[in-house]
Design brief:
By secondary structure, the chain is α+β, with helices and mostly antiparallel strands. The protein contains 4 helices and 9 strands; from the N terminus they run βαββαββαβαβββ.
């Protein structure tokens, strides 16, 4: 059986609550054109693997667990509000993630390399850590949302990262549902 899989970092609950409050403010200005994520889905993706054979999950876990053992905890700064590709043509609305220590980027690079060794294709675009709040499905009536985004910001919050998650994403008619398959302590 195939499992839609990705590797991620969870966001501290208190910060999820604050991000969700901001998201609710944005929802008021967005109309029906945006598919918003629930706060239980807030995370930082390190690597999207796609459909993976169920038997491969243990190998992915073992490979990452061995390599990340002793990596150590580090802090991530959650800051700012933005869009991909940009504010004029928003497709994805996000909260930014910064890492002055460089550990987040180091972690992502290790995950990328280890997964490439297992046969997963390397990402060809630069890594931009973020938390997805919503995806723009219909850009017609979102001028109010863009104005709102330009007038507010997500103030700096710092959270500790102590583990990496191997996640499953089940696609349902109501949207995707995420489940933690394995946890890897740093």
């Amino acid at each position: 059986m195939k499992i839609r899989t990705f590797i991620a970092i969870d966001v501290p609950e208190k910060i999820k609550d604050e991000i969700f409050e901001l998201e609710k403010e944005l929802m008021k200005s967005a109309g029906e054109g945006v598919k918003w994520e629930g706060k239980e889905k807030f995370h930082i993706t390190l690597k999207f693997l796609g459909d993976v054979n169920e038997e491969a999950i243990d190998l992915i876990y073992d490979t990452l667990n061995e390599r990340l053992n002793g990596f150590g905890n580090f802090s991530v700064i959650y800051k700012g509000l933005g869009c991909f590709p940009d504010m004029k043509h928003p497709r994805v609305i996000w909260i930014g993630c910064e890492d002055p220590s460089g550990k987040l980027f180091e972690l992502q690079k290790i995950v990328e390399e280890k997964m490439n060794e297992l046969g997963f294709e390397k990402e060809d675009k630069e890594y931009h850590p973020h938390i997805t709040l919503g995806r723009v499905k219909n850009p017609k009536n979102i001028s109010g949302l863009i104005k709102k985004m330009e007038s507010i910001n997500f103030e700096t919050r710092t959270g500790e990262v102590a583990e990496v998650l191997i996640m499953k994403s089940d696609l349902k008619p109501t949207g995707s549902v995420y489940t933690v398959l394995r946890k890897i302590k740093l």
